[in-house]
Write a structure and sequence with these properties.
Distance between the termini: 54 Å
CATH class: Mainly Alpha
Number of domains: 1
Order of helices and strands: HHHHHHHHHHH
CATH topology: Heme Oxygenase, Chain A
Strand content: under 5%
Radius of gyration: 18 Å
Shape: elongated
CATH architecture: Up-down Bundle
């Protein structure tokens, strides 16, 4: 089981969640989904799929390739040996879980008659920006980014899974991808806690304020890019409706 390196979080998670929630609630696309607009739901599932798929691959590529030297210099050889074994297991678990989550996204789309292999939008610049940001070689940025995506997934799921008009759009009456992100049945630290712990461990500063500022900036950028992507997907949907 992964043991956190830091006893107290460097971020106020409630504050981060409020900021994340505000972005989600203010999105016309997400609000339309919550109101049961089937075309908006279709746009959400198709539009964000390239990122959902690429995010799984980004975690896969990171497994087994975490840099060792910064941690040895900071925590010492003995502690890092145990840390690294647990950290790799934690990241591997994230990869496996994101892989299953990607399958749940596909399954939800299939319920609505969407084939994500053939149903897609033209390449959207905002989605490409999300994908590029998730492949950072900087472990501080990478794990901050994972934390940002986790905040987004949890808040998006909490909003839509509690919107009856949205869940009724699915024949099963459930959005299984969202339910998976609403479930908190991990043994030990959550993935969000592990993401933040690793980002902090790799940061060169020991000053919590400096570390917190860096992680907050990375997470905010993640949320902002998500908001821009939702807006571009909404604009693409509006344009397609005009053409039809």
């Amino acid at each position: 089981m992964y043991a956190l390196l830091f006893a107290e979080p460097v971020l106020d998670r409630d504050v981060v969640r409020v900021g994340t929630r505000e972005g989600i609630f203010s999105s016309p696309l997400i609000r339309a989904c919550a109101h049961g607009d089937r075309e908006a739901i279709r746009a959400l599932l198709i539009g964000f799929w390239p990122f959902v798929q690429a995010f799984e691959r980004a975690i896969d590529q990171r497994v087994g390739h975490l840099p060792l030297r910064p941690l040895v210099e900071r925590f010492g050889q003995s502690r890092v040996k145990t840390f690294f074994s647990e950290a790799r297991d934690a990241v591997r678990e994230m990869k496996e879980e994101e892989g299953s989550h990607a399958l749940l996204w596909v399954a939800g789309a299939k319920e609505l008659g969407i084939d994500l292999n053939t149903d897609h939008y033209p390449q959207l610049s905002s989605i490409e920006n999300l994908i590029q940001a998730s492949t950072s070689e900087d472990p501080v940025e990478f794990f901050s980014w994972l934390a940002g995506v986790e905040y987004l997934a949890e808040e998006l799921s909490a909003y839509l899974c509690h919107a009856p008009a949205f869940t009724r759009a699915f024949p099963s009456g459930r959005w299984i991808w969202g339910e998976a992100h609403n479930a908190h049945d991990h043994h030990g630290p959550s993935h969000l806690e592990i993401d933040e712990d690793l980002a902090r461990a790799y940061h060169p500063s020991n000053d919590p304020e400096i570390v917190g500022a860096t992680m907050t900036a990375n997470i905010r950028r993640c949320i902002q890019l998500f908001d821009r992507a939702a807006t571009q997907i909404q604009d693409t949907l509006a344009q397609s409706e005009k053409v039809s």
